[in-house]
Structure formats: structure tokens, C-alpha cells
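User: What would this chain look like folded?
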Amino acid sequence: MSYDVTQWLTYRPEMMDPALPSGLWFCSDLLDVQAVDINAACLGLGCSWEDLKHCRDFLAQYKSIFVPVANEDRRGEIIQQLESYAPSTPILTPRDGAFHGCGSIHELRDKGGIKAVDGLLYGAKERPAQGLISLSDIEQTDMSDVPCVLSGFPELDRSIGGFYAGEVSVWTGRRGEGKSTLLGQMLVESINQGFPVCAYSGELPKWRFKQWVSLQAAGPDNVTAKIDKYSGKPFYSVSPFIQSQIDGWWRDKFFLYDNQGGSDEGRILSIFEYACRRYGCCMYLLDNLMTARLSGASDADYYRAQSEFTGRLVEFAKKNECIVHLVAHPRKGDKSSRLEADDVGGSGDVTNRVDNVFSLKRLSEKEAEQNGFHSVLSVLKNRAYGSTISVGLDFNEPSRRFYKSGTGSPRKKLGWEYCKQQEIREVPRDGTEPF
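Assistant: Here's the prediction, encoded as C-alpha cells.
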């Protein structure tokens, strides 16, 4: 089948034969086309590279496309466009020194004749296929050398290996089960391992978010019980002195998305990109999927928009080799039933796109008494190792810390405690001091 693309390419139709083993010679200009003559073409006068979209079928009928251009910059420009508009056709380039110092094909023909032109094809090098990698060329990777951030729960880390760079994890569970609390603790744990973090919280005001993660950073031995003077409600707080120590520890390592700028998906991702480039943030939290304003998300295609945004988060994680945690509520259903991965967000497509899916369930008082722990953390999906374990967790309310039931402790010391300053307190003078 012949294709007439003379509107966009310059060539002699009667001299074109796709069956020839020499393939198509895509030249720099008309003079070079005339020097080759057989199976030679170039971009038409006054045409743009975008016009190659009309020539896809014409280009695809050749066994290969040879780019006999002496100037490397011009050759690179042509190759880039051909790889875009003829991705299924092998592209060949001349061997080093093939032009013998000449700057064009017609100059080479003037000096050496048609045999010198034919010789350009000898030893031509094939460009690596776009989008294909030979498996034998991929270097073996030792999983122990792959960067990861540990969760802080040894049982979970032994099962999934930690959170690896490029992974996206979905966290689900009924409302009020403690997902945000647990993930705040993991962000603090990431900082303790030297990995900066960035969080988006669509449900908590910034002062509340800091209050909660500050309690987790402080630990149960560094918080104070207080009573609200208006309601009588007991609560826990961190003293200004301890808070200053923690602020110094996580300064330029813990960032929170400012919701005043809007919560549309494009802005969230752009801020995450900035946090990655400017501050080297390695772990990101998006809490939660339902609070992000998704583009084109009408009632009819809301789940599709959720899936597409999750796909953008996956691309972000892979591109920047970072870790993303995404909170997504399950569909409404029987609260007593065990959650499955497909229960998340109303669409199984969300969990299909990600690497890990976890659920957190808070037990009733009766269940907690029977089982001996407060909550259950379950792995619903783990792409790396296929783990599906469950871990029983207890909860320390003063510090808002989860810990392994039975053998764990909420009193783990973090980095700020090893370098904290001694608080200086003024001693009240009652007349009994010795000096």
C-alpha cells in the first residue's frame, strides 16, 4: 500500500520502495535527498515537525529509518521527532567517522561518489528502543540496599520490609479508628530516622495537627495533664520548654500544607513537588482523599476522579523516589465485617494502583478485654512480599502513641531527647537558702 504524504515530506514517489533492505533515509534537506535519491525523504519546505503526525503510516511501512545527518545537533532533533511519530520503527544512525569530515551527504557524494554515500549505512548503529529495556541489562538490586523508612513497629517492618522509595500506601478504616493518629506517629518516626516529611491534613486545623504530633514526639514522660477551665475536660499538653526542644529538632524537616491556598489536587501536588526539591522531603501524607478537590469530579464520575488522582500520586512517588501515605475511607457497609482492599473509597481501582493497603480497626471494650489489645493493624495488600499479617496494638492516650501490645512500650526516646537542654527553673526564695 502506498501513501501520498508529499504535502508534508519531500521525496520522489517513483523512487520509494518500502521492500528495500536499506529502509527509509530521512535526510536533513532537499540537497541530501537528491544525493541519495532512492528511498530518501526530508521534511517539506514550510512544514513543521508536528506535520509528521500525518505521516505515521507512511513511516511505519519501512523496515527501518536511517538518519544520515553529519551535524549531531540536527541529527538529534530529527531522531527525537521520529521517535515520537514513528515509535514502532527501528532508527539507525551513522557510525563514528562515516562522513570522513564532510558536512553533508551531497558534499560526501561530490568527493567520493555514490559508493561513499552507500557506505554510510555500513556499521550503522541502531538506537535503543524507546520504552524497552533488555532484562539482561538491568543491574541486580540487593533489597537491603534499597532506601526505606521503617514504620517503628518491628513486627510490621519485618513483614513488609519498611516503606520503600517510590511506594504509595493506602490506609483505610472506619471514621475515628485512629488512622490519622497512627500516620502522624509514623511521620515523627520518619524524622527520627533522618527523613524529612510533608503532610496535607484536610480535616484538622494547623494548630490541632501540631498539638497532636507534638504529644507523639514528646512521649508520655514529657506531657502534662491539665483540666479545661471552662468545660472541665481533661487534656494533655507539652510545656513551652519541651516544645521549643521539639521545634528545634524537626525544624526544616516537618512541613504542613497550608490549606489557605486551596485544596485542589493540582496545588497539593505542586506543593509536594516543591517540598521534595527544596527541602528533600521523603515521606508525604495526604489525609484524606475525600477532602482533596478533584478536577472534573462530578457525582457521576467521582470514583474515577479518585482513581486518577491516586494515579498522579503514584507517578509523583515513582518520579521522585519518595513515599506517599494516602488515607481513604471505606464504603459504607457492615461495620462488624472485616475490611478488604476493594472496600476502599468505593472503587477497587484505587487500591489496584498502589503498592500497599493497610486497615486500622479499634476494638470494642469487650473485644479489647478478650484479645488483650486496643486496635488491630492489618496488611490487606503488600506488593513487595505479599504479606497479609495483623498486629495487635495498644494506645497511650497522654502521648497519642500506638505500640505493640504485650512487648512494646510507648516510652521510646526520640532524637530530640538525646540533645535536649536542661530546663532552668527559678527557685522561690523563702529566706532559708544558704547563700
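The chain has two domains: 9-126, 143-418. If you want, I can go into more detail on any region.
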